[in-house]
Amino acid sequence: MAFDGLVTRGVVTELNKILKGAKVNKVLQPNKNEIVLDLYSKDGGKYNLLISILPEGCRLHLTTHLKENPSNPFNFCMLLRKYLVGSKVLEISNYDLERTIEIKFEARNELNDLVKRRLYIEIMSRQSNIVLTNETNTIIDCIKHFEDDKRPRLPASPFVFTPILKSSFIELETFTDFYEIVSDSPEEKLSEKLPDVFIGFSKNFVLKNLEVLGIDNEDYSIDDLEKLYNYLKNLIENFEMNHIKPETIGKDYTLINSRQKENNLAINYFLDEFYFEKEQKLLFTQSKTNLLKIVSSSLKKVYKKLENINQKLKECDDMEKYKLYGELLTANLYHLPVDQNLEEVEVLNYYTNENIKIKLDTKYTVSKNVERLYKKYNKLKNTLEIVSEQKQEAEKEIDYIESIIYSLESCKTMEEIHQIYHEISENFTTKKEIDLKSVKNHKKERQEEIKIQELEFQGYKILIGKNNSQNDYLTFTVGNREDLWFHAQKIHGSHVVLKTNGQEDIPEEVVFEAAKLAKENSKGANSSVVPVDYCKLKFVKRAQNRKLGMVNYTNFNTILVK
């Protein structure tokens, strides 16, 4: 959890400078865990203050990335609109380095009297909350309700701050005070000790600043502790002077001292971009996983269907045997007891000139058995014809679904996810199963022109399709009849088009580069050798009765790409 007490203090300090006296214009709630206050500052600037209580990203900061709002507002959003729209921000503060932020508002009530209201943002991971109170600090309502003897969060209850169980670093007057607290357990690591005893310190913050100061986390002296104490005191004083800058640490971040004055909203906008990118990555992963889950499930169903078809085809293997038995019995009816129910008869097989025993159904006469054998033969013959066609369709369906899975596994951006989502919605046989909130809530309108990856090699443009939609668009809309078209042979992959600009003699190294790109953007990317077919685009046709991106091509050459 990177949004510690130091980050909270930094955000609050910046906001208080910019938003003091700002007017609340709108209140938005894009989802059940986020509130956005649309504010106009005294100098005429417009700001959007995001308050999030998402467990994996609870925070407060200005944002430039607004989300779509639901058509029916949430109840808490309506309540905040009633009490806060038109009000003025008096102050934004937090006690010490606590992660409970208080925003004081001045508003007019129903009688047009000026009243004070407070919005408390409690940043506590899963216990995070947003609480609105009146002038007596009684809770009007909160986004999460729960009963607690020490800290109730219910309407009409008094607002009680979470008890503070740690020491305050800010209130320390001398290094001696700091040393007395820290030296209690000298064997403990500083990155574990300081967060345990002081309000607002996180492990990441301590580790990063120990690195900046060159202090060992385990083996440190009294001089090292004094150096750390002075540095931290200086850091806290620097908040007001904007000499603090945020810095990423792997997948997290923290604050460190800066030698120069930073932008007035450096911390706020750093957090905005950091969490936006984090949410986009999470959204991408979830969307990709959900689509893969649905498509893979459909692939299993088609494989199951193919298994049943193959079973029926196996039953058709005996079709000719039933025809032969019928013929032999018919040829020998003149000397068989046709009106009797026999278990077995032996007749001459004139194809092999050997006797053959034929088992009969004792429930029926010999002549009736002959009739049933022919009937069974005709039924299997019809079944073979229908099922053979069904097998072809199932194999085409498997080929198409596997191409979607390959595209999904290869995609790198949300835009590519959107394109695949649209393709599935429009063409998939199991489109009724598609209910992907993570895609639907963030999908963009389809653009008239799909973006295609474009590379340049020795003055020639090479275009690469990343999924079935892009492949189809590239091959049949962007490409010219005389351009060269490349595709890895008999495996799923991208369509690659080399723009020839009407030239006939293309350098061999350019052709090979396009073939290499076709290999690298195919399922055989990691194979040692992949044959790549190429031909002029005029010889590439949409496959009849096939799905998007499926083609047939003729007049091609093949390059072995190692």
Written overview of the protein:
With 562 residues, this protein is an alpha+beta fold. The protein has four domains: 5-164, ibrinogen binding protein from staphylococcus aureus fold; 175-257; 296-446; 453-561, no CATH class. Helix content is 39%, strand content 22%. It is built from 13 helices and 21 strands. Strands 14-15-17-16-18-21 form a six-stranded antiparallel β-sheet, with helices on both faces. The protein has a five-stranded antiparallel β-sheet with strand order 5-6-7-8-9. Strands 1-2-3-4 form a four-stranded antiparallel β-sheet. Helix 4 (190-197) packs across helix 5 (203-213), helix 7 packs antiparallel against helix 9 (366-410) and helix 8 (319-331) runs antiparallel to helix 9 (366-410).
Brief overview:
The chain is of the alpha+beta class. It has helices at residues 5-19, 75-84, 175-182, 190-197, 203-213, 222-238, 266-315, 319-331, 366-410, 414-427, 437-440, 468-478, 508-520, and strands at 23-31, 34-40, 46-52, 59-62, 88-94, 100-108, 114-122, 129-133, 139-142, 244-249, 252-257, 344-349, 354-359, 453-457, 460-464, 484-488, 496-498, 530-536, 540-542, 551-553, 557-561.
